[in-house]
Amino acid sequence: MLEVQQLAVNYRGVCGLDRISFRIEPGQLVGIVGPNGAGKSTMLKAMLGLIPAVGGKVSYCTCPLHQQLERVAYVPQRSQIDWDYPITVWNVVMMARTRQLGWFRRPGRAAQEIVKAALERVEMLPLKGRRIGELSGGQQQRVFLARALAQQADLFLFDEPFTGVDKKTEAMMLEVFAELRSHGKILLVSSHDWGQMLNQLDRLLLLNQRLIADGSPQFVMTPEHLHQAYGVPMQAPFHAEEPTFFC
User: Fold this and answer.
1) Domains annotated on the chain, with CATH
2) Predicted TM-score of the model (pTM)
3) How confident is the prediction along the chain (247 residues), in pLDDT tens digits per residue?
4) How distant, in Å, are the alpha carbons of 29, 129, 130, 184, 217 from that of 202?
5) Where is the ABC transporter domain (predicted)?
């Protein structure tokens, strides 16, 4: 189980996250939604210790998450990646295994087979020698999805993975997410544009610094909750139902 308890972040006295709490069981695909500046990326980074929290704790299988980051695959927003860095597709994905093996050990056949399988899964093996900056946005995102797969993690965090990708890549990512969920993995995915993924989510977290609603997409995406989050009247994509989770 992934458990976040009273997680809080401040930026020079300004609240970034206000005591966020939730639990996620294995085999769940959970979305994060909210307006720009709501704290979606902040929450993912704070969970991993990439930015300091002023309060709260994050645990996985009852142990602090920051002590077992080898079990976490994190794909950041595209804007945080240096696409001009001269590295090939193969080496980007191999970085997942380098982290497991140590920086001074050469990857063996087993590691190479894992990387090959990950690239084949996202249909990027034919471009393994291409530099990452030469690819389209969808191809680049598939490479980073392959790197996450090659890490063979238990917990997957994706920050805005659908930004700038084509429909084929989006469909492939949704297929991979479903496969990971079926294998008992935990997936936490933030996005502005959900589209058909809303129907595939087990749960949805609606944020605006605080956790406004937590539950099924049908329960969370109501006019009342959306108004609280976005500050303006909004039409809901679902009819309301009885809550399954709420904070």
Assistant:
1) 2-230 (3.40.50.300)
2) 0.88
3) 999 999 999 988 888 899 999 999 999 999 999 988 899 999 999 999 999 999 999 999 999 998 999 999 999 998 888 888 899 999 999 999 876 665 556 778 899 999 999 999 999 999 999 999 999 999 999 999 999 999 999 999 999 999 889 999 999 999 999 999 999 999 999 987 666 778 889 999 999 999 999 999 999 989 999 889 888 877 766 544 433 333 3
4) 5, 37, 37, 13, 8
5) 2-234
